[in-house]
From TrEMBL:
Name the record gives this protein: plant cystathionine gamma-synthase
GO biological process, one term: transsulfuration
Pfam families: Cys_Met_Meta_PP
Gene3D superfamilies in the cross-refs: Aspartate Aminotransferase, domain 1, Type I PLP-dependent aspartate aminotransferase-like (Major domain)
Residues in coiled coil: none
Family according to the record: Belongs to the trans-sulfuration enzymes family.
Species annotation: Setaria viridis (Green bristlegrass)
Length: 322
């Protein structure tokens, strides 16, 4: 993992979520201030909103492209750390890592990138100036939808602090999980190459389809950060989000009609996975859906290693049910 991310050091832990928790616990002092973005893995946000205040840690949440808000937060607070995904979940927004690294460093703040959606094949955030990279190894790194793990990579000086915290608290990766992750990593470059290609073709195909209202994929020129993705990524990954031209029930009929992808809330594995965030990760809160722009017709589609034509034909027949 250190070789892939060009890191001095990496610590593997029991889950991606725990990687984030261990990193935040070890590196953000009590009473510190962090900055994060609106579009992100929901449990990370819940952790930061509900748990960090108990240690007196406060937070500024910015929109992914709002660099003025980041500058403002850095100017008006003693910011310990800016923690963001890029690409983000579920809209695949991209943050200019080199730019935000410079902004953070000039104010003495650390930059930690959750690079799970990119995989270390498509993006090496440490080489762009980030101080730390975390991954949910549950996704591309293990790649087979059968194991949970996470990791933190970066300079030895920083990763050591995470490792010391981890050795006290637990959250240890079990040996069988470690074996499955190592086994999965042997094909990481092949899987991601295939997923990059199939997802790109799928995004282009969906964007032209009359039953599709909008496609979110950083490889498309229509994506708001395509210009950033193009320069800092070497591929755009296997997740394509889109809105179908229909209401809640039309979208549900579509998702119930696909035959190849599994209905599940993960991504990055060999098997394609599809979900409707309004009834999956955001099922419990209409208010949160409205705040974060999760519409009833939004679909998150994680493309596996199946044949493009098979997947396309499956979507075409299912879209007739919208
Ligand atoms: C899945 C995910 C996590 C959490 O990882 P787990 O391994 O499921 O705990 C964190 N961040 C992102 C971006 C994720 O996709
Ligand atoms: C800012 O926070 C750091 C810890 O992250 C601390 O060492 C430093 O003294 C703080 N600076 C000010 C001006 O409060
Ligand atoms: C690293 C990698 O395999 N990148 C590829 C992802 O897919 C695109 C096609 O859309 C290729 O151009 C990249 O080389």
């Amino acid at each position: 993992m250190s070789a892939l991310e060009k890191a001095e050091s990496t610590v593997f832990v029991a889950s991606g979520m725990y990687a984030a928790v261990a990193m935040l616990s070890a590196l953000v002092p009590a009473g510190g201030h962090i900055v994060t973005t609106t579009d992100c893995y929901r449990k990370t946000r819940i952790y930061m909103e509900n748990e960090l205040p108990k240690r007196g840690v406060s937070m500024t949440v910015i929109r992914p492209a709002d660099m003025d808000a980041l500058q403002n937060a850095l100017d008006n607070n003693n910011v310990s750390l800016f923690f963001t995904e890029t690409p983000t979940n579920p809209f695949l927004r991209c943050i200019d890592v080199e730019l935000v690294a410079n902004m953070c460093h000039s104010k003495g703040a650390l930059l930690c990138i959750d690079s799970t959606f990119a995989s270390p094949i498509n993006q090496k955030a440490l080489t762009l100036g980030a101080d730390l990279v975390i991954h949910s190894a549950t996704k591309y790194i293990a790649g087979h939808n059968d194991v949970i793990g996470g990791c933190v990579s970066g300079r030895d000086e920083l990763v050591s602090k995470v490792r010391i915290y981890h050795h006290v608290v637990g959250g240890v990766l079990n040996p069988n999980a470690a074996y499955l992750i190592l086994r999965g990593m042997k094909t990481l470059h092949l899987r991601v190459q295939c997923q990059n290609n199939t997802a790109m073709r799928m995004a282009q195909f969906l964007e032209e389809h009359p039953k599709i209202a909008r496609v979110y994929y950083p490889g498309l020129p229509s994506h708001p950060e395509h210009h950033i993705a193009k320069t800092q990524m070497t591929g755009f990954g296997g997740v394509v989000s889109f809105e179908v031209a229909g209401d809640f029930d039309g979208t549900r009929r579509f998702i119930d009609s696909v035959k190849i992808p599994y209905h599940a809330p993960s991504f990055g594995g060999c098997e394609s996975i599809i979900d409707q965030p309004a009834i999956m990760s955001y099922w419990d809160s209409k208010e949160q859906r409205d705040i974060y722009g999760i519409k009833d017709n939004l679909i998150r589609f994680s493309i596996g290693v199946e044949d493009f034509e098979d997947l396309k034909n499956d979507l075409v027949q299912a879209l007739e049910k919208v």
